[in-house]
Amino acid sequence: MQATTTKEKRPYVLEFCLIVIAILVALPIYYLLVTTLKTPEEAAASPLGLPHQWILSNYVDAWKLMHYPRVFMNNFIITFFSLIGCTILPCMASYGFARSRNWLSKLLFLAIIAGLVVPFQIALIPLYKLIMSMHLMNTLWAVVIINVSVTIPFNVFLFINFVKSLPLEVEESASIDGSGVVGTFFRIVLPLMQPVIASAAILNSLTFWNDFMGPLLFLQTREKAVILQEVYRNIGQFSTNWTAFFPMMVLGVAPLLLFYIIMQKYIISGIAAGSVKG
Amino acid sequence: MLRKRERSFFLLILPAVLIYMIFYLYPVISTFVHSFTDWSLLQKNIHFIGLDNYKALFHDDVVLTGIKNSILYAIIMTIVQNALAVPLAVALDRNLRTKNWLRMIFFAPAVLSPLVVGFLWSYIMSSLDYGPLNQILTHLGLGSVNWLGSAKLALYSVILTQVWQWTGWAMVIYLANLQGISKELFEAAHMDGANGWKTFWKITLPLLVPSITINTVLSMIGGLKVFDIIFSMTNGGPGHATESIVTVLLQRAFTDSQLGYASALGVLFSSFVMIVTVLQLRLMKRWEVS
């Protein structure tokens, strides 16, 4: 008799087709990388060929021209503090919302959830005035606080579903031990939320790092600029020596691309988990 | 005792609520109110002008083009992206040796910044003699295409790059959904003599409905909000052929200083996004039940 659970045969033809598709998908990224090492003439003659010699001076120039360490730090500071804010505040709030029986908190919850369907772009004009009147214009904090406020609805929504799935017994035993609500939250609930926090953090950090509109509107001097603003500033400056722009694009995407290559397993599963629950 | 507990809950809620109210809710309401005024940076006083801004919107060709483009962009992107992502995910769910590598490559474009993707693809699709895409097409004897310079084609070229960028993201969500489906279901179908095609339509696809809902809602909303990629690839051009709602909104607000008018466009835009989201969720719910 045949075994009921026959092991699936390897579908070689399918795999071959998929590999071909993957190569096609990867080609633009390959083109981006390989062009950085070429002269314009060489790139025009054979766009996809390997470079004759590896000219790294383009990268050195791009690094200097973009003030890379400075813009990188600005990007990093914005992403780091935005992540802290967009994690801790919605965590606290979602616990409060999940456990409170008060009508006011129910109302506030609805107000926050409404933000899920209201696109943030509608808020830009008054926000611009508000940031100006608070003297936050041209500070990294402006972008941080906007990042946090934009992500609050989604993160509260994501976290509250998780909190509601936690068993109440653990918290009850803690409150018998004399721990208050705030203490119970920080010592017991918050550590349990780790997996959902991780997937929200991955999702949000991609958004924060790649955000262009926020910095474009709220960071005006070069000292405060983020990486993408420097990329944007330099496009079109090299109409003849156009391959010199390519290292800038690479420096623009390199940090996240490296992060992705190292952490891909966690990033992909985090995004899948975050989206499926959201 | 209970009141003290409630007060503590409120304390936990408060910081998020405050930030949200000041930096999200207040600006949204303010936009709504200002959409009925002639607020502008060019004059000192603000006057209430009723629905004039809204009426003017429908006579503004650039606005109408922007609306049309955003809708077209969102719908085409949603359809193409999901039509590609579902089969890709089903294929990757098989017993493949290079599965993890393939998944990593398909998802990779999604971590790149849309701004840089826009610049990169405007080089790739360039009509100048170095443009690699046209070089390849010419080699294959297909002739070159004016990807971004043609008013008719430019929007579709932008959509193409976004399909390239986001299909892997959708695929990953489908894949997670598929991995949650018990393999016994497929085996049972196989035993009953169902072929691969039938299994896909009768079992796989219905079970994928939750992730189809998520993916289509996400890409519809994302599509309606499109900004970065258009800003970097075409900047709304040629002419105003690829203008989107958000690019027009930012121009009217920050370049032309017509803040009241731009606010009206913002309100119209949000109502639109809201209606689309709610309709879509309803429709999908019905499908999920049946």
Automatic annotation (TrEMBL), chain A:
InterPro entries for the chain: MetI-like (IPR000515), MetI-like_sf (IPR035906)
Keywords annotated in UniProt: Cell membrane, Membrane, Transmembrane, Transmembrane helix, Transport
Span of domain ABC transmembrane type-1: 72-263
Transmembrane found in the keyword field: yes
Lineage: Bacteria, Bacillati, Bacillota, Bacilli, Bacillales
Membrane-crossing segments per the record: 12-33, 76-95, 107-128, 140-163, 184-209, 242-262
Similarity-based family: Belongs to the binding-protein-dependent transport system permease family.
Protein's UniProt name: Raffinose/stachyose/melibiose transport system permease protein
Compartment annotation: Cell membrane
Short name of one Pfam family: BPD_transp_1
Membrane topology listed for this record: Multi-pass membrane protein
UniProtKB/TrEMBL annotation, chain B:
Predominant location: membrane
Keywords assigned: Cell membrane, Membrane, Transmembrane, Transmembrane helix, Transport
Subcellular localization(s) per the UniProt record: Cell membrane
UniProt similarity note: Belongs to the binding-protein-dependent transport system permease family.
InterPro entries for the chain: ABC_transporter_permease (IPR051393), MetI-like (IPR000515), MetI-like_sf (IPR035906)
Membrane topology annotation: Multi-pass membrane protein
Name of the protein in question: Raffinose/stachyose/melibiose transport system permease protein
A Pfam family hit: BPD_transp_1
Top-level taxon: Bacteria
Record-annotated membrane-spanning stretches: 9-29, 71-92, 104-124, 153-176, 207-227, 259-281
Cross-referenced SUPFAM superfamilies: MetI-like
Organism annotation: Paenibacillus shirakamiensis
Domain ABC transmembrane type-1: 67-280
